[in-house]
Amino acid sequence: MAGGLPHPVLLVDEAAKGVGLYKLNEVFHAQVIDSNVIYAWFAMVLLIILGMLATRKLAMVPSGLQNFFEVVVGGLESFVVENIGEKGRKVFPFLCALFLFIITGNLIGLVPGLDSPTNNVNTNAAMALTVFAYYNFWGIRMWGAGYIKHFMGPFWWLVPLMLPIEIISHLARPLSLTLRLFGNVRGEEIVLVLLFALAPVVGTFPMYFLFSLADCIQAFVFFMLAMIYLKGSLEHAH
Amino acid sequence: MLGKLIKDKAVRESIASASVVGLNLVSATFVGLLIGWWLDRWLGTSPWLLLTFLILGIAAGFKNMVLEVRKIQKADAEEHQEHGQDDAKP
């Protein structure tokens, strides 16, 4: 279901029904496994297979898939190190996995017969809460009890005002991360379905270029914000 | 426009940071409202904590927005400076 509108055929859903993963629960009259989870697994399987293919024949002079992954991962790593500094190498695996998963999840939604795992609030909220827990974990690990200085603002006499404001703005981060990704991906799918109903193929084809670009930008925004939050907890409070 | 978006890294990054600004304001307001509502229900002090935390949430949203816009402006100024230097020595 894209945007609550009927979707013609969803291949992975049908396959999951075939192996019995998708049958209705008799007690709750709901699916045993939601389709966003199935598509998240699909994106994971896709990434694992691509990673295995890329690292099967490692060469000093990369070619093909290995070359592609080296460019992507190397570019992201230099971006992270440029922004956070050398400490960024410790958190880079998390950020890179996040980016690759989101971009795969966004882009498989554009393939006919597939759906995005990221068009569901639950997937995005899970990722945003993971980011929230992870950067706070790093903050506490780096600074111990002194991490609370990050929430206290610049002057000591502003602490009673700044503490609640900072706590609210930190709690708002996972909410805005979730809603931004969800709104963009779900909105794209609704537009695609509506345009397909109006003018099949002719109407949707040009939108594919725009939406594949928007999908990449949304994955990049999520990655960049996670990086900025990690940077904030890794560097010294000012 | 689209080609520039793909090629130019600075354009992509400024779009990414500009798309952050609006939603941060709204989500901080909502989180403040929710915390206030929940505390009111827990402590039975309706409606004072709700109003306090709503105002704090709005303040947090505006603080986030100001910081974000300041960062974008700083990046813009740096970029202009670099371009200016490029023009100076051909």
UniProtKB/TrEMBL annotation, chain A:
Instruction: Please give the chief subcellular localization of this protein.
Output: membrane
Membrane topology, record value: Multi-pass membrane protein
Record's InterPro entries? ATP_syn_F0_a_bact/chloroplast, ATP_synth_F0_asu, ATP_synth_F0_asu_AS, F0_ATP_A_sf
One Gene Ontology cellular component term attached to this UniProt record is:
plasma membrane
Decide whether keyword tRNA processing is in the record: no
The membrane-spanning stretches of this chain are 38-55, 91-114, 126-148, 154-172, 192-211
Any GO BP:
proton motive force-driven plasma membrane ATP synthesis
Q: Which Pfam families match?
A: ATP-synt_A (PF00119)
The subcellular localization recorded is: Cell membrane; Membrane
Q: Which UniProt keywords apply?
A: ATP synthesis, Cell membrane, CF(0), Hydrogen ion transport, Ion transport, Membrane, Transmembrane, Transmembrane helix, Transport
- Name the Gene Ontology molecular function terms of this record: proton-transporting ATP synthase activity, rotational mechanism
What is its biological role? Key component of the proton channel; it plays a direct role in the translocation of protons across the membrane.
Which PANTHER family does the entry link to?
ATP SYNTHASE SUBUNIT A, CHLOROPLASTIC
Protein family: Belongs to the ATPase A chain family.
Q: What is this protein called?
A: ATP synthase subunit a
TrEMBL record, chain B:
Q: What is this protein identified as? A: Putative F0F1-ATPase
Q: Out of the domains of life, which is the source?
A: Bacteria
Q: Which UniProt keywords apply?
A: Membrane, Transmembrane, Transmembrane helix
Which parts pass through the membrane?
Answer: 20-39, 45-62
The cross-references to Pfam families, in alphabetical order and at most eight, read: ATPase_gene1 (PF09527)
